[in-house]
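sorry for the late reply, my laptop died twice this morning and i had to redo everyting from scratch. anyway the thing you sent over, i finally got around to it. pasting the sequence first so we're on the same page, its 374 residues, then the predicted structure underneath. double check i copied it right bc i was rushing
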Amino acid sequence: MPNSLREIERFFESGGDNQALPLRLSALFSSYGYKKYRMSRFEEYSLYAGNLDFLAGSNVITFAGADGKLLALRPDVTLSIAKNTKANRENGEKLYYHESVYRTSPGELGYEEIDQMGVECIGEVDLLTIAEQTELILRSLRLLSSDHALDVSHSKLVHGMVAQLGLDARAKAEVYDCIKKKSVHAFAELAAREGVETKKAAKVRRMIELSGPMDEVLPELGTLISGEEAAEAFVQLTALANEAARMEGGDRLRLDLSVFNHLDYYNGVIFNGYIKEYPKAVIVGGQYDKLMEKLGKDAQALGFAVNLGAAPAARRRLPDAALIYDESDDVYGVLAAADKLREKGKSVLVSKSERVQAKKIYLYREGGLEEKKC
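ok and here's the structure:
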C-alpha cells in the first residue's frame, strides 16, 4: 500500500487492489441519498425456497443451523432487503449495499462467491425515481468502462402485448421464451399452430425484432401497441426516453424488449447494463412491486445490482513501467533502479521476461536504465 498522498491517489487511479471501484460506487450511491445496508451472510432457506423463480434458477447452498433450522448462504441480496425492510409507500428507504452472494458453480462441483454492489429504492416509484436510477446506472457504467450501453425494457409492455394473443398459459410461456431468444421463426410457427389472428401475430413478431436506440425505436413501437396495459408501459418508456435525452450519456440507452425478468415478480421498467470488456450484463435491475406484494409489503421497489467480478476486465490498467533484468545483473542495483522510478510516483513491474506489458519498458544495463523502443 502506498504512503504519500500522491502515491495513494495514483494507486486508486490505476485500480488499486480492486478497492477503487467499490469506493467510487459507494461515493456515487451516497451522493444520491442512499444509505449503506449491512446484512447476515445467510437467511432461513424458506425465504429462497418460496421464491426460486426470482433467483433465476440459482441453486441455493444450504446447511443446518445450531438450532436445527435449515439455513442458506445468501444467493441474492434483494430478497433479504425486501423481507427485512420496514419501508412503505409513505415512508420509503433508499439503501445501497456491498455484499457477497453465493451460488453453485457450473457443474455443481462447488460454489462461487460473487462480489456485488447495488441499490434498492423502496417506497413509491414514480417517473422521477425511474429517471434517477437510470442516471445512476449510466454513471455506474461509466466507472466500469468508457464503452458501455444500457438496454431498457418494460415487463408490462411485453405482458400486455402477449395478452392480446389470447393464448393459454402453456402457449404464453412459449411466446415469452421466443421473445427472450429473439426467435422470430419459432414465434411464427407457434402463432400459426395456435391460430393467432394474423394482425396481432405480426405486431408481436415485429416487437421481437425491434431493438436499437430509444429515440429511433420508440416511434415504430408506438404503432404496434395494443391494449391498455401495453399502452401505459409505452407512455412510461417514452417519458423516460425524453428525460434520458437530457442526461449525460443518455444516448447510450437502447430499447430491447427481449430483456425481461420473471413476470410474477417484476412489473415495470427493466435494466441490463453492458460494457465492451465483458460478454454478459454487468448491471441488472428493474421494478419489482410484485415481489414486495408477495412478501406482504405495502411498497413499490426499484433497484439494480453491479457485478464487481466483471470489473477487473474493464478496470485493469498497465503498470507505468516494466524493468527487465537478467540473472547476471546486480540484484540490489535492479531493486534500487525500480525504487527510483517508484519515488517518481510510478508503478513498476520487475521481470526477466520482455513479453510483459507496461506503458514503458526499461532494460537494466550496467547500472542504468535504457528505454526499450517498440
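Residues 5-315 form a domain with the BirA Bifunctional Protein; domain 2 fold (CATH 3.30.930.10).
thats about all i looked at so far, will dig more tmrw
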